[in-house]
């Protein structure tokens, strides 16, 4: 406790500022609170935003609080506002929002969480304290986010782009080689006359002028289908352009590469004949060498100057649901907190589980690795359902209906002290995908109850009780001895 008190003196809470630094609700936080209302449990979120942006209401905050606060206290208030906007660890605890990072939300920064990071992150990006935010240059692949039950993603706009009065969301993008494609998962209804595209080439310096490196297909609401070529030296070009590049340099839109200001992003507008509502947008790469990197797309109505930014990703299906000081994306393919996997791979150890999950053909949304389990492939044989009816910090109840035997997977931390009962009978919890919990179920309807009853608590309570008894006995003996001593002196 002494160590915590001394260490805490250097933390921001020890420097007094306005109470609103802790209590006020920022827009991104308000969105997550509203989105999670009524869900049992709420899906998790992941924030990868740094604190290099300024709050949009900074002038208002300065006007309101400068007369009351000193310079240092006002600065602390602004930093606190940014921390709440991105919900850095462990602020979600204060608002009961389940997070991947830090504590609460069903996950913990355990050794198993660090092991799970090794399945989808390069070694240099793995955080030994379990936190992802400070070590992720961008979002992980959507498959892993879905497994972690991450519905919402938070990031800033520092490296987004404004080009010719049009905003381009560069938060995701698609990195494509020959034959690969990416499609916009969600297109709001918006009547447009053109599609703005920001892109560059990598490793394609040898391609001559006019080489078709990609194509964009736009399907409109009236059924019309437009296909636009992307050509080296015309619509796009080598990102790190230099004397050795065989094609011309396309119109440069700007320089938005994180950490590489010398990188070029090329902007182009692809126009169709009449104003129309696009319903499908797909980008293909056809270049014989190198990669086509599409940074962002925006629909543009050139009659009015209005625009609608889109999210293109080759790492999953996402849509933008909030845009303010930061952006909040929704993962459209998130897995539920509890589910029945169609395919299970049984392994005998944590090392074997990690090796399987690091395999290039492993898809965490289609296969679950269970330590101590058995291989299983299930088919769609009948109606099945999984419903969480109670979700509390130390108790989770799930109603399950199975057409054939299988494993129930709860994507909460596998941790000593959790026990499980199936229809009132105690059974075993097995580690699933390194970090989660799996329970074997026979076909039929079941009530599965997870209860946190750690042996360490009862051992600690027993030690405390024994210490209390010893202390009480000592005090009684001391009192009796003092009384006898006093009696002998008076005698």
Description:
By secondary structure, this protein is an alpha+beta fold. It has 10 helices and 28 strands. It has helices spanning 2-8, 20-23, 27-36, 58-65, 71-86, 92-95, 111-120, 142-147, 350-357, 455-490; strands at residues 44-47, 150-156, 161-163, 166-168, 174-176, 181-183, 192-202, 212-220, 225-231, 252-254, 265-276, 278-285, 291-301, 306-310, 318-323, 326-331, 338-339, 343-347, 368-371, 376-377, 385-392, 395-402, 406-410, 418-422, 425-427, 430-432, 436-441, 444-452. β15 (318-323) and β16 form a beta hairpin. The longest helix has 36 residues, at 455-490. It is globular and about 115 Å long. The two termini are 48 Å apart.
The main pleated sheet reads as: 6 strands, antiparallel
Q: Report helical residue fraction.
A: 10-25%
Strand content: 25-35%
Shape: globular
* Rg: 29 Å
Q: Give the overall pLDDT as a whole number.
A: 92
SS-based class: alpha+beta
Low-confidence stretches: none
What is the straight-line distance between the termini?
A: 48 Å
The strand count comes to 28
Count of helical regions: 10
How many discrete structural domains? Answer: 4
In a nutshell, what does this entry contain?
The chain folds into 4 domains: 12-151, no CATH class; 161-323, no CATH class; 338-452, Maltose phosphorylase, domain 3 (Sandwich); 456-491.
SSE layout:
Blueprint: H1 2-8, H2 20-23, H3 27-36, E1 44-47, H4 58-65, H5 71-86, H6 92-95, H7 111-120, H8 142-147, E2 150-156, E3 161-163, E4 166-168, E5 174-176, E6 181-183, E7 192-202, E8 212-220, E9 225-231, E10 252-254, E11 265-276, E12 278-285, E13 291-301, E14 306-310, E15 318-323, E16 326-331, E17 338-339, E18 343-347, H9 350-357, E19 368-371, E20 376-377, E21 385-392, E22 395-402, E23 406-410, E24 418-422, E25 425-427, E26 430-432, E27 436-441, E28 444-452, H10 455-490
Parallel strand pairs: 1-2, 18-19
Antiparallel strand pairs: 2-16, 3-4, 5-13, 6-12, 7-11, 7-13, 8-9, 8-12, 10-11, 13-14, 15-16, 17-23, 18-20, 21-22, 22-28, 23-27, 24-25, 24-28, 26-27
